[in-house]
Design goal:
Blueprint lengths: L1 H21 L5 H5 L68 E5 L3 E3 L2 E10 L2 E9 L5 H13 L5 H5 L11 H18 L1
Length: 192
């Protein structure tokens, strides 16, 4: 009789443990933190044979603490087939950093052929473009100024390639080249 009672108690405890461990999808996290179940049935060494011939169940000599099922934490049941949605934390948006691209105009310089002034475009710590705002014009000066513009100006010119005012002088346009370099040097000093 005692064995039958212990077997039923053990079956009930393991069923409870199984329900707690297998439980509904909302309670699986709780079940992961539970201790493993211990057997409820006492071993034969723990039970003394009964000296009572009356058929009364023997009394154990040692007391064994049968593990009790932990109480499941409070959880809300949800109907099967429904999804739970969690609110995402609000996104914090920041403004895109201001562009560090700026235009810097150098001082103008007059030479015997005309006035020369240069402007550079700087992004961060790099020169990304150079433009002659003013170059000598008229007659042969147009040709020489065109040569200076072609050599130094733009995003692929010598100014961007060298990143300084140490430019090669344009043959036949020495005065205009020197004035361009002076204006460029002044723009670089203002920019950096």
């Amino acid at each position: 009789m005692r064995r039958a009672l212990l077997a039923i108690t053990g079956l009930a405890a393991s069923t409870t443990a199984l329900v707690v461990f297998k439980g509904s999808p909302g309670t699986t996290q709780v079940a992961q933190n539970l201790p493993t179940a211990q057997p409820v049935n006492p071993t034969p060494q723990d039970v003394e044979p009964s000296a009572d011939p009356s058929g009364v169940a023997p009394k154990p000599s040692k007391t064994t603490d049968a593990p009790t099922s932990p109480k499941p934490t409070k959880s809300t049941a949800r109907p099967s087939g429904t999804r739970t949605t969690t609110k995402a934390a609000p996104r914090t948006t920041t403004k895109a950093p201001q562009s560090t691209t700026r235009r810097v105009t150098g001082n103008g310089f007059e030479n015997e052929y005309g006035y020369v002034q240069v402007q550079i475009v700087v992004s961060g710590s790099r020169i990304v473009e150079a433009v002659a705002l003013s170059l000598p014009s008229g007659g042969e000066s147009d040709i020489h100024s065109g040569d200076v513009r072609n050599r130094y100006d733009g995003g692929g010119g010598e100014v961007v390639q060298k990143q300084n005012a140490n430019l090669n002088t344009v043959s036949g346009a020495t005065e205009t080249s020197n004035s361009y370099k002076q204006s460029l040097r002044s723009a670089i000093e203002q920019a950096f």
